[in-house]
Amino acid sequence: MRTFRLFYVLLGLGIPAKGVTVYYIQGQEPLTATGTASAGAANYTGAAAYNPTVLNPPPVPSPFNSQFNIQLQNGGTPGVSIPQEGSFLGFSIEMSVANQVLGKNASVIQVPFLNLMANIQQRAGRVNVRVGGNTQETAVLVDSTPDGRILEKDISGSSNPTQTPPLVFTPELLYMMRNISSFVNVRWFLGIPFNDTTNFRLGIAEVGQQILGDYLIGLQIGNEPDLYVRHGHRPSTYGPNDYVGEVYNLLNAMSGPENAINRNLLIGPNIATGDWKPEDVWNTGFIDDFSANLAYVAVENYPADNCFAQFGLGTYQDPQVVFPSYLNHNAGKNIINKYLNSTAYVQTKNKRMLMFETNTASCGGFAGISDSFGAALWGLDYTLELAHSNFSGALMHVGGQNVFYNPFTSPPTNQSTFHQWTIGPIYYSALIMAETLGASNGTQVLDLNANDGNIYTPTYAIYENGNPVRVAIVNFVTDPSGASDLLVSIAVGGSNVGQANATPAQVKVKYLLADSVSQKGNFTWAGQTFGGIFQSDGRLQGTENITTITCDQTNNVCQIPVPAPAFALVFLTDDAFTENSGAPSTTFPTTAQTKTRNTVTIDPAVLATSNGHSGMGKDKLGSTSAGSISAASGLRHSLGGGVTLMALVSGALVIGRLILR
Ligand SMILES: *[C@@H]1O[C@H](CO)[C@@H](O)[C@H](O)[C@H]1NC(C)=O
Ligand SMILES: *[C@@H]1O[C@H](CO)[C@@H](O)[C@H](O)[C@H]1NC(C)=O
Ligand SMILES: *[C@@H]1O[C@H](CO)[C@@H](O)[C@H](O)[C@H]1NC(C)=O
Ligand SMILES: *[C@@H]1O[C@H](CO)[C@@H](O)[C@H](O)[C@H]1NC(C)=O
Ligand SMILES: *[C@@H]1O[C@H](CO)[C@@H](O)[C@H](O)[C@H]1NC(C)=O
Ligand SMILES: *[C@@H]1O[C@H](CO)[C@@H](O)[C@H](O)[C@H]1NC(C)=O
Ligand SMILES: *[C@@H]1O[C@H](CO)[C@@H](O)[C@H](O)[C@H]1NC(C)=O
Ligand SMILES: *[C@@H]1O[C@H](CO)[C@@H](O)[C@H](O)[C@H]1NC(C)=O
Ligand SMILES: *[C@@H]1O[C@H](CO)[C@@H](O)[C@H](O)[C@H]1NC(C)=O
Ligand SMILES: *[C@@H]1O[C@H](CO)[C@@H](O)[C@H](O)[C@H]1NC(C)=O
After folding, report:
1. Distance from the CA of 618 to the CA of which of 35, 327, 553, 643 falls in 20 to 30 A?
2. Is the pTM of this model over 0.85?
3. What residue stretches are annotated with the Beta-glucuronidase C-terminal domain (predicted)?
């Protein structure tokens, strides 16, 4: 294939891989932000994760009101959500790709993955990650595999529309997850296979509990059971009551002492909300029947599917035509509306509800949508609306090289010596969501229905102890002329709400920016970026840029400009800004390698911070710019347990510094 020929040439010339800096392969040249689909896109035959398709942004809506007011008050605001955790938005990693994303085995772990998780931990205190998906249903825990790998796929045995291969895995996968949690505070969800509910394979629950201990926070009981009939996994008469019967079978099967704890970690019904409604399950008495066993209730949903393009199933959807439907506030609301009754109902049952698997579209997402800046804005608005609507968390799905929607993608295995990771828009959503909610576990979210409910300018207030601390503003419009830049006037307290004027003297603002909703890669969050395809080691690069805006305290107003397009996070108080997620970040020396010839010792004198709140204030600790190594104090840990961290070494740039809490 033409796209790989360049690599053969470079390797063939004997240029050592560590000296090669190839960020773009033929056909994947840098893309213009607002241009039409680049010439190479139409004939592109490479992996979906690097598809160069760039769509056209939708036209500027007309009329469009770009100036509006927000009146906030301290205490007593009606309609705020239940208290939320900063780890609200986590990730769902398809089980069959866990060995590409997490590491090769328990002793060879991917440094970029650790850095990506550490960024979020720094802001939220922890990260919730599920390893599962369709592949969990037929997964088999085995002692070992013939070639020593921790996962083996049987591609020929694929049995449903997403072509998920049956797989076997070894306890090493669980050890790898446990080892990751010793570096970064990642908490894990797993799933009990439900393909055969007369002979449950409980290995993953039993060994998972033994190895992961407190880091195991939930076990799915079935994945999308409402689609079992459609996919030929159950007889056509199968319904919610049959599912409940299977859960009773499971509890019987889990009655041994080794299951005492994990019997209370169950998560159901995990319906895709395709062929059943949540109420169909609630009305069986599901939550009352299993109340003691349910750690959470959960649903899964994608707003659309691209199964035609990927597998020839369903109806063709043209990404250019579909794109605008992602770029307004109704996109998230249309997913969530069908669950509003459920989030109210589960509150009456003292349960919390998760959106367990979601992303822009099932069957891999859409080229040009799922990997665009628009998807980052969509992800933020959707997730903030989930929080406002009393969900308690959401997990964005991560697939392999063959999907468009990945929050992060490791390079193809045979390119890992010269390519780095590709960070997608949804990762920016997760990072910023962590920062928006913070680590207190007590933030409450309110959709302000601002600008008379204008769907292009959704705006949220975030409360702590009843008082507004941050404001999140989305501008979905792309308009390089500047005419659609917002000017949002925020007032806190004042005569409008019968309170003392409480507008701060100044506020700080961080922006998520790109030239267009169509742009791929190089988005900036407060001036820092994860770059374009194959360009990230999981740390933000560049100098942080925070905007300070002076407010008019006499007239009780702070005026916040928000470019078209952008997301803005306004910090109303110094505490809201400098609030630390908990433990300080530390780094430690380690050895990084992908191939023995690339083995280097990582310079310990690097502290990767200036991320999150802790790095912003007076104790700015160091630079994260590529290649810039600043002396930094701080704790340094040696790496025990014989763990090797896997990272790319490119030229003189030493990568693989790890942020540790
Ligand atoms: C991202 O920015 C880098 C550095 O400026 C540049 O080399 C690259 O072409 C850009 N990539 C995209 C996809 O715009
Ligand atoms: C796609 O390939 C065909 C045949 O090689 C060529 O004629 C056409 O110009 C290519 N299209 C684009 C957009 O590159
Ligand atoms: C882990 O993977 C590395 C790299 O492939 C290999 O050298 C090592 O032997 C593996 N460790 C185990 C315990 O299989
Ligand atoms: C369930 O999956 C296992 C492992 O893939 C397989 O051996 C078994 O035949 C399946 N059982 C049913 C009833 O489909
Ligand atoms: C809300 O859910 C409950 C529990 O399933 C159900 O009894 C009720 O009918 C639902 N209400 C609406 C309006 O759907
Ligand atoms: C979320 O729950 C709170 C507390 O029960 C309630 O006041 C609020 O109306 C709910 N929000 C939505 C959108 O259902
Ligand atoms: C990497 O593997 C793919 C799939 O097996 C193959 O097509 C490609 O040529 C390989 N590339 C390199 C640089 O070895
Ligand atoms: C937030 O909640 C999690 C459990 O969900 C807990 O582990 C953590 O300690 C809490 N953080 C704070 C600051 O209370
Ligand atoms: C910092 O961000 C602001 C707001 O986007 C921008 O106007 C300014 O040019 C940026 N400064 C630097 C040094 O990038
Ligand atoms: C990583 O996992 C292995 C088991 O495969 C274990 O021997 C080792 O101690 C673990 N390392 C750490 C740092 O937990």
Report:
1. 553
2. yes
3. 460-569
